[in-house]
Amino acid sequence: MRKAIIAATMAALTVPTAVVTATPALAKQRHYHRTDNGIRYWRGDNGRYYCKKSDGTTGLLIGGVAGALIGRAIDGGRDKTVGTIVGAGAGALLGREIDRNSSRPARCR
Fold first, then answer.
1. In degrees rounded to 5, what are phi and psi of residue 47?
2. Side by side, which strands form the sheet with 40-43?
3. Residue 42 C-beta-side C-alpha neighbours within 13 Å
4. pLDDT tens for residues 77-98?
5. Looking at the 3D structure of the chain, how many domains does it have?
6. Domain of 66?
7. Chain segment 37-79, per-residue pLDDT in tens
8. 20: phi > 0 → left, psi -120 to 50 → alpha, else beta; which?
9. Max alpha carbon distance in the chain (Å)?
């Protein structure tokens, strides 16, 4: 039974690797440029500049955790659930917006 589980796991890991390896050959290659602060951008076929921007996931997670901790500390009641939930929601929204809008080069606006 143990060998069957290991074989199934190896097969499951091998198939996605083969698909990911073949995918870049099908996609159009872009020539990326880099600004002084490390933002990557490229020029499209239509002459416009496009940036490789963050989708805000990191800011969402970090903001949610920080907001939950701050909300829990501010909430003075015996049951700190409300403060934790409200703080997590507000922190997640704020962290996502900060992460999405930080350090864009002027060309990509």
1. 90, -5
2. 33-34, 40-43, 49-51
3. 9
4. 778 899 999 999 999 999 988 8
5. 1
6. 2-108
7. 667 777 788 888 777 766 778 889 999 999 999 999 998 877 8
8. alpha
9. 60
Whether residue 42 contacts residue 50, with contact meaning beta carbons closer than 8 Å, is answered with yes
State the first-to-last Cα distance of the chain, in angstroms, to the nearest integer. 57
What is the pTM (predicted TM-score) of this model? 0.50
Nearest alpha carbon to residue 90 among 71, 77, 109: 71
Q: What pLDDT was estimated at residue 49?
A: 78
- Tell which residue, 24, 47, 49, 18, has the closest CA to residue 34: 49
61's CB contacts (< 8 A; 6+ apart) are: 92, 95
Indicate whether 3 pLDDT > 70.
yes
